[in-house]
Amino acid sequence: MTDLITATPEATGEGNQEMRSRSELTAKEVMREVGAVLRLSETQAAALGAVDDFADADVDDDQTMIINMGPQHPSTHGVLRLMLELQGEKVLRCKPIIGYLHTGMEKTGEELTYMQGGTNVTRMDYLSPLNNELVFSMAVEKLLGIDGDIPERAVWMRMLLSELNRMSSHLLFLATNGMDIGAVSMMIYGWREREEVLRFFQKVTGLRMNHNFIRPGGLAADLPAGWRDDVLEILDLLPERLAEYDILMTDQPIWRERLQGVGVITAQEAAALGATGPILRSTGVPWDLRRDMPYLHYDEVDFDVIVGSYGDAFDRYAIRLNEIRESMKIVRQILDRMPTGDYRIQDKKVTPPPRARIDESMEALIHHFKIFTEGFKVPEGEVYVGIESPRGEIGCYIVSDGSPKPYRIHMRAPSFVNIQCLPHMMRNGLVADAVAVISSVDPVLGEVDR
Amino acid sequence: MSDTPESRETSDQSPVEELRYGVRVSDSRGQVVLHPTREQYIATLKALVDDSFVLCSDLTAVDYLTYGSRVGKPKERFEVVVNLMSLERRERIRVRVEVPESDPVLPTAFDLYPGTEAMEREVFDMFGISFEGHPDPSRILMPEDWDGHPLRKDYAVGRIPVQFKGSPS
C-alpha cells in the first residue's frame, strides 16, 4: 500500500491523484484542504484554529492509517473509490478518486448529430435518464430558437415523464439507502416500487432505462392507449407503500440513530461547494429550479419545496421521501391538465415526417433521409440550460458552429459536484458512518465519470 | 427556426460596448455573458461573489481550434466557461475567459468557489489548461499517467489503444 501512496508524481509531471500522506504535506496544505471549503474570512479562520476541528493539523503519520474503500465496494454505488485517513475509528481526511467509469461521453457527443445525441446523454445519469434527455433537448431547442414553439402536449408529457422519473430515482435511493444502513428488506421494497414506474416507462418508451424518448422538438411518440390508468395505478399504489416506509424506517429508533447528526453540512458550506438538490435543501435553503427558475410549466402546478433544517443524512433521506409525495401531487395535476394535440413540433427541418407520409411524398422522404443521415443544422452560438434533476441541477452547455453536430457538449452533472461534499461531511465522523454519508449524497457514477 | 440577425450577432460586431463589472458583456440567446480578459478574471469573479452570485454551478472549457464558423469565434484557442448563479436574485450569469494556446494557464477560482476544485481538475485533465494555485492539480478522470488531453480537438477519437497503468507499452 505504501507503494500506492508514494507513487511518484514526477513520473508524469502532472501530480498524483491519490491522497498524499501527512509527511508529504505541510500543515498549511492540510489546513487549506480542510478549511477552504468553509470560506471564512481570515480572522474567523484564525479563531477556528483553536477549535477541535482544526486540531489535527499536527497529527503525525504514525498515528493515522490510510485505507481504500472501493472501487469495488457494494455501498459506494458503483465504482467510487474513497481514500480515508483514519485515526482509530475517526475519519480525518477523505479523498474521492473517480474516473473508473470514464468513457469519454463528452468526446463521443461531439461525433454524434443532435438527433443521435439523446442516446449518448441518456446514459450519463442512468437513474434519471429522462431528465438528461430533457435538458439536452431544451438546450438544443434554445439554440434553434424553437424553445417557445413546443406544443403544449409535448411540454406536459415531458413534465409527466420527468416527475415519474424523479419518483423512480428517489425510490431507488430509498432502496440503496436502506441497504447501506442495514435495513435490507427496504432494498427489496424500493426496487419493487421502482419497477412499477419502470414498467410504465417500458410501455411508453419501449425501454426501462436509457429511453432516448425526449428529443429536440418534442418526444419520440405519443402516450400509448390506457396510459392514464397506468399512471393512476401507480399513484394509488404508492401512498400506502410510502406510509409503510414511514413505519419501517422514519419512525424507527435504529434508523434515526444511524442517520441523525451524521454527515452534517451547513447552508454556507453547501453553496460554497456548489452542491444543489436535496443536499442544499437539507441545509434549509429552499432552492429548487422547478420553482425558482421555472421551466416547462412548473410555474402552473402547485407543489411544495421540501427543506430540512439540520443538513444531516436524515434530512436528506426525509427530503427525498417527501419529494416522492410532491411529485405525485404534480403528476395528479398533470393528469388533469394534459391537453390533446401534437407531441412534437411540426418543423420539417427538425422532426422527421410521419412514416405514412414517406410513402406518398417525395419531399417527406428527402427530409426523412436528411434528418437521419446528416442531421439538422443548428445555428452557431452557445447556450447553457439547467434543470432540476433528482440529484440537483443538471446542466447542458452546448457550443454550436452551425454544423449538424455539437461543437462541444458539456453536461454539468450534479453528482460530480456533489461528491465534493463527501470529505467535508465525513470529517471527524466514524468510519461506520462513512457508508451512510455516501448513501445520503446519492451519487450516480455514470454521470460523475461520464 | 426564428433566427433573427440580432440573435446571431455577437458583441464583436456591435458598435457600442456595454460594460458590467468593468468587463465586456454580451447576450447569448437571452443569457448574460461576461468576457473578462485573463487579467480581469479573478477580479470579475470577486465582484460577482460580492454581488450575490455565490454558487458556481459549472466550470468547463472549449477548444476552438477547428470551430467552423467565423461568427463568434474567439481570438485565442481555448476558452474557460464559468456558470454562476445568484440564489437571492434567481439569476444566472456566464463568464467566458479566453486562454491562449501558448500559455494555457489561468488563476484558480478555488479560493472564491471551493466547489470548482473538481471542475478545474477536469478542465486540466481534458484540455491541459493549468490552474495556478489549485490545491491538487492532478488528473481526475483519466489515469494519472495518461498522455494527452482528450477533449482537445487535435486529439482524435479512438486514436490510441487502451492504456493500462503499469503495463509494458
Describe the protein in words.
The complex is a heterodimer of chains A (450) and B (169). Chain A has 20 helices and 8 strands. Chain A has 450 residues and is mostly helical. Chain A folds into 2 domains: 2-97, no CATH class; 105-412, Cytochrome-c3 Hydrogenase, chain B (Orthogonal Bundle), CATH 1.10.645. In chain A, α7 packs antiparallel against α8. Chain A starts with a helix and ends with a helix. Helix content of chain B is 15%, strand content 27%. Mean pLDDT of chain B is 81; it is low at 1-15. The longest helix of chain B has 12 residues, at 116-127. Chain B has helices at 5-8, 41-50, 116-127; strands at residues 19-20, 23-28, 31-35, 55-63, 78-86, 91-99, 105-107, 130-132.
Secondary structure elements and pairings:
The complex is a heterodimer of chains A (450) and B (169).
Chain A: H1 2-6, H2 27-35, H3 42-48, E1 65-69, E2 81-87, E3 90-97, H4 105-111, H5 114-121, H6 129-144, H7 152-181, H8 184-205, E4 214-215, E5 218-219, H9 227-250, H10 253-259, H11 267-272, H12 278-282, H13 289-292, H14 313-337, H15 355-360, H16 362-373, E6 381-389, E7 392-400, E8 408-412, H17 414-418, H18 421-426, H19 431-441, H20 445-449
Antiparallel strand pairs in A: 1-2, 2-3, 4-5, 6-7, 7-8
Helix pairs in contact in A: 5-6, 6-7, 7-8, 7-14, 7-19, 8-9, 9-14, 14-19
Chain B: H1 5-8, E1 19-20, E2 23-28, E3 31-35, H2 41-50, E4 55-63, E5 78-86, E6 91-99, E7 105-107, H3 116-127, E8 130-132
Parallel strand pairs in B: 3-6, 7-8
Antiparallel strand pairs in B: 1-2, 2-3, 4-5, 5-6
